[in-house]
Automatic annotation (TrEMBL):
Pfam families: Amidase_2. InterPro entries: Amidase/PGRP_sf, Amidase_domain, PGRP, PGRP_domain_met/bac, TAT_signal. SUPFAM superfamilies: N-acetylmuramoyl-L-alanine amidase-like. It comes from Mycobacterium deserti. Residues 74-214 form the Peptidoglycan recognition protein family domain. The lineage of its organism: Bacteria, Bacillati, Actinomycetota, Actinomycetes, Mycobacteriales. Residues 86-221 form the N-acetylmuramoyl-L-alanine amidase domain. SMART domains: Ami_2, PGRP. Belongs to the N-acetylmuramoyl-L-alanine amidase 2 family. This is Peptidoglycan recognition protein family protein. Residues 34-55 are annotated as: Disordered.
Length: 268
């Protein structure tokens, strides 16, 4: 009987074993290499710390500043509130067709004097000149408060050489050859004229100063007149009219009396 052939491993199996050994050695070598790269070398100096970046505090954006707007009164304080005497009988009816500004030509000083100054003007106009009433239709004090004077449907009066017939007359309290008109007073006058332009259909380009009709006066004073000559006051009137109806209403009774008391106390 023939002897059994010696056992020889299959060549493909031997190749696979050899390949596994090679791959095993490659894996070990690769793992060792990665470990050496990732491990810190104790002999190497420590790397410097990253720079510290300080965060800037957030700042609010700079907003453009808007100059404050000086409000104007849209209320007329009735005659009884400032202590007017009754008008005398008479007067000439009119329909206003133009607008004219005056000053009282008497330095006002503190605005707390305004109501009492109106009473003085009325006594002077009635008792000295013999007129039916204070000469103008509306008055505006330094703080822009508006006062009811003579009815606009009656012609005003003047001691100078011009005919005020057809003129809607606003007087600003003070002497503007000596004092400066305030923004509040200008705005109050603009409201008064805008109301008249709307009420009677008066063109705003008729707005003028007393001196424009009479060579024997500097009224309404140099400082106030600059706002006429430059067109500033007319522009204020036009701006009010462009914004819509001008609401100018009269108040009487306790509410108006309290308002006048506040003016005399320096609160308004």
């Amino acid at each position: 009987m023939d002897a059994s052939p010696a056992f020889r491993p299959d060549s493909r199996l031997e190749l696979s074993r050899r390949r596994l050994l090679q791959l095993g050695g490659l894996i070990v070598a690769t793992t060792g290499a990665c470990s050496k790269e990732s491990a810190a070398d104790p002999t190497s100096p420590a790397p410097p710390p990253p720079p510290v970046v300080k965060a800037r505090p957030l700042q609010a954006p700079t907003m453009p500043t808007t100059p404050p707007v000086v409000p104007a009164s849209h209320v007329v304080l009735c005659r009884d509130a400032w202590g007017a005497n009754p008008p005398r009988p008479g007067g000439t009816p009119q329909t206003p067709v133009r607008m004219t500004i005056h000053h009282t030509a008497v330095a006002l000083g503190d605005n707390t004097n305004a109501p009492s100054r109106l009473r003085q003007h009325q006594r002077y106009h009635q008792d000295t000149h013999g007129w039916i009433d204070i000469a103008y239709h509306l008055s505006v004090d330094r703080n822009g408060n508006i006062y009811e004077l003579r009815k606009p449907e009656l012609v005003g009066d003047t001691a100078t050489s011009y005919n005020p017939s057809g003129h809607f007359l606003v007087v600003c309290e003070g002497n503007f050859d000596e004092e400066q008109v305030t923004e509040a007073q200008l705005n109050g006058a603009a409201v008064a004229f805008a109301w008249a332009a709307q009420r009677f259909g008066i063109p705003t380009d008729t707005l003028a100063g007393h001196r424009d009709f009479s060579p024997d006066t500097t009224c309404p004073g140099a400082d106030l007149y600059t706002h006429i000559a430059s067109g500033d006051l007319q522009n204020r009137v036009n701006g009010l009219l462009a914004a819509g109806p001008v609401d100018l209403h009269s108040i009487c009774g306790p509410e108006a009396s309290a308002a006048v008391a506040d003016i005399e106390a320096g609160l308004r």
